[in-house]
Amino acid sequence: MSNHYNAETADWLSFQQGDKRALSACYNTYADYLYNYGCKFTADTTLVEDTIQDLFLKLWKNRENLGQPASVKNYLLKSLRGLLIRKITTAQRHAPDELEESNYSFMLELSPEHIRMANEQAAQRSLQLKSALENLTPRQKEAVFLRFYEDMSYEDISEILSITIKATYKIMARALDALHEQLGQPL
């Protein structure tokens, strides 16, 4: 096991025992990551920041009943996703239990570094790719973001999206097929 994993596990256990420093360390480690992920669901940065705060407050209140997640990062991403979707759904006056695929958008944008590289290498190709990505379903966009921009495994993506690994592969295959069809070459 890596040192990062051991430190993460130790911080999580300390947090569960009431160590505010450990919660603060967890927040400092993952807040930017969570913010970046949350901003893919909504342009309302205040909502994203509030939801991250709510997540950590909820974690603190329920710390004694929490288990040890296999990955703290994935647990936090999944938890943020659930809270954020519920807030967006409530704000849109839809049923708060589950957000249907057609009722939310997942804003997938290339990072500034990727945009710069794409502009340097092939500005036209970048525009074609962006156009093709926009035609994906929100769930496909989210899976592509997690796989290629966050470098997550299919297992991690399935956990965050609350779907089976097989369904994750299917979503990715359909997304890649759609991109291939639109771009005219294998990805």
UniProtKB/TrEMBL annotation:
<dbReference type="InterPro" id="IPR014284">
    <property type="entry name" value="RNA_pol_sigma-70_dom"/>
</dbReference>
<protein>
    <submittedName>
        <fullName>RNA polymerase sigma factor</fullName>
    </submittedName>
</protein>
<dbReference type="InterPro" id="IPR013325">
    <property type="entry name" value="RNA_pol_sigma_r2"/>
</dbReference>
<dbReference type="Pfam" id="PF08281">
    <property type="entry name" value="Sigma70_r4_2"/>
</dbReference>
<dbReference type="InterPro" id="IPR007627">
    <property type="entry name" value="RNA_pol_sigma70_r2"/>
</dbReference>
<dbReference type="InterPro" id="IPR013249">
    <property type="entry name" value="RNA_pol_sigma70_r4_t2"/>
</dbReference>
<feature type="domain" description="RNA polymerase sigma factor 70 region 4 type 2">
    <location>
        <begin position="127"/>
        <end position="179"/>
    </location>
</feature>
<keyword id="KW-0804">Transcription</keyword>
<dbReference type="InterPro" id="IPR039425">
    <property type="entry name" value="RNA_pol_sigma-70-like"/>
</dbReference>
<dbReference type="InterPro" id="IPR036388">
    <property type="entry name" value="WH-like_DNA-bd_sf"/>
</dbReference>
<dbReference type="Pfam" id="PF04542">
    <property type="entry name" value="Sigma70_r2"/>
</dbReference>
<feature type="domain" description="RNA polymerase sigma-70 region 2">
    <location>
        <begin position="27"/>
        <end position="93"/>
    </location>
</feature>
<comment type="similarity">
    <text>Belongs to the sigma-70 factor family. ECF subfamily.</text>
</comment>
<dbReference type="InterPro" id="IPR013324">
    <property type="entry name" value="RNA_pol_sigma_r3/r4-like"/>
</dbReference>
<keyword id="KW-0731">Sigma factor</keyword>
<keyword id="KW-0805">Transcription regulation</keyword>
